[in-house]
Amino acid sequence: MTDLTANIEKLNGYLSRFRDTGIQNLIGGQTRPALSSATFETTSPVDESLICTVARGGAADIDAAAAAAKAAFPAWRDMPALERKKILHNIADGIVARAEEIAFCECWDTGQALRFMSKAALRGAENFRFFADKVTAARDGQQLQSPTLMNVTTRVPIGPVGVITPWNTPFMLSTWKIAPALAAGCTVVHKPAEFSPLTARILAEIAHEAGLPDGVWNLVNGFGEDAGKALTEHPDIRAIAFVGESKTGSMIMKQGADTLKRVHFELGGKNPVVVFEDADLDRALDAAIFMIYSLNGERCTSSSRLLVQDTIAEEFEAKLIERVNNIKVGHPLDPATEVGPLIHKVHFDKVTSYFDIARTDGATVAAGGERVGDTGWFVRPTLFTGADQSMTIANEEIFGPVLTAIRFATEDEALEIANGTEYGLTGYVWTQDITRALRFTDKLEAGMIWVNSENVRHLPTPFGGVKASGIGRDGGDWSFEFYMEQKHIGFALGQHSIPRLGA
């Protein structure tokens, strides 16, 4: 029996209950269908087969979930910090115990390769452990003395919050948003992406099995135009944390305006990896390939624009073409697979449309640029060369295994190209000149920059973008700043003179 055959057998075991019962909402600790009884289907991008039916929640379901979150909030807010910490650690333990199930279901639901999804559950557990250990410090404040007052600051949870997560690496990103919300003392209404609902249900189950009180975490499946819109407009939801497209983020901001909702957006990117002639070219090549072709290129931090100095460009691009042509495309549960199918036909059509756009723009399709097979949404890893920053392929977020190579002559030209998009999420700079690295990163318009490295996340550091790439920061204390309100209390130090009116 091959590894792939064995993995498919395991997958079928994990999916059997979903095939029997479908995926339901979880509101106030109760599993329930949509109040309208509406459903939709989730299918696998591997072969377009039906996975199961899913409850299609709407405004009424969101209203019920928001009511449950509001009712559960006071007790969760006031629970002793060490008790909350224990529950969050229990959730992490539950994630680890079901890590294989989570990984296999995520592969089948999203098309992501097992070599990457096998770590997604463990990263999710790390997120819960990290924020669990920060629970006792979440309300820490400052002492700020003035001549007449002892001023004390503290933080309190903002209340029920909405979390809307995307279809790319949905399990890890759900934990990344929900763990700090729970640690802060907030209650949650979670609406996962309709393309990838499987692991959101597993995660919510793990949380309740870990001892999370009913109503603290509510799950409503549905579409953005009904369930999502109702969540962003609901008056009892105090804040929205969203990961997804920039245009959707703009819509959410408008929808939440009437209720003055706080928003946190992790949005799109068109991130440059800038390779100067003095770089360690072998390591730069490895990193450039990894950061665009891993996770099927469906990641906001992907290095989708390669800016390479013209003195080394020909040699660098030749090695790049050879490597890209060797990337293994295949079944996501095959341990050898490096790139699996794209999430859905809608996204497949979007990504493949850029192949003709590139040719029309005048770029060269140096590798890939075609579908793989006739079943499923598989795309050959693609490289465009001969591009410049005026081209559509250099400005629009393709969000697939597609890299656009642009040559530059000088540092100033590289900076102009790097900053020449509406996005500003990440940047990657490769150079041995530390002075240049400091100078360049200071002027590079991005919220996160790695020098001589791929994207390596460190949980205490801030994660987020500028311009059209987002608002706010995740990670460490920055997450608590979003999910909590600052409070100031002033204590009089003595009987200082108070102005008397009307005496």
Any overview of this molecule?
By secondary structure, the chain is α/β, with parallel strands linked by helices. Helix 10 (246-255) links the parallel strand 10 (239-243) and strand 11 (262-266). The protein has two domains: 3-267 and 469-487, Aldehyde Dehydrogenase, Chain A, domain 1; 272-451, Aldehyde Dehydrogenase, Chain A, domain 2, CATH 3.40.309. The termini are far apart. The protein has 16 helices and 22 strands. Strands 14-15-16-13-12-18-19 form a seven-stranded mixed beta sheet, sandwiched between helices. 52% of the residues are buried. The longest helix is centred in the first third of the chain and has 20 residues, at 59-78. Helix 6 runs parallel beside helix 7 (170-184). The chain is globular and about 85 Å long.
Q: Which helices and strands, and how do they pair?
A:
Blueprint: H1 3-21, E1 25-27, E2 30-32, E3 39-43, E4 50-55, H2 59-78, H3 81-97, H4 99-110, H5 114-117, H6 120-132, E5 143-145, E6 149-157, E7 161-164, H7 170-184, E8 188-191, H8 198-209, E9 217-219, H9 224-233, E10 239-243, H10 246-255, E11 262-266, E12 272-275, H11 281-293, E13 305-309, H12 310-325, H13 345-361, E14 364-367, E15 382-387, E16 402-408, H14 411-418, E17 423-424, E18 426-430, H15 434-443, E19 448-451, E20 466-467, E21 470-471, H16 476-483, E22 484-492
Parallel strand pairs: 7-8, 7-10, 8-9, 10-11, 12-13, 12-18, 13-16, 15-16, 18-19
Antiparallel strand pairs: 1-2, 3-4, 5-6, 6-22, 11-21, 14-15, 17-20
Helix pairs in contact: 1-4, 2-9, 3-6, 3-8, 6-7
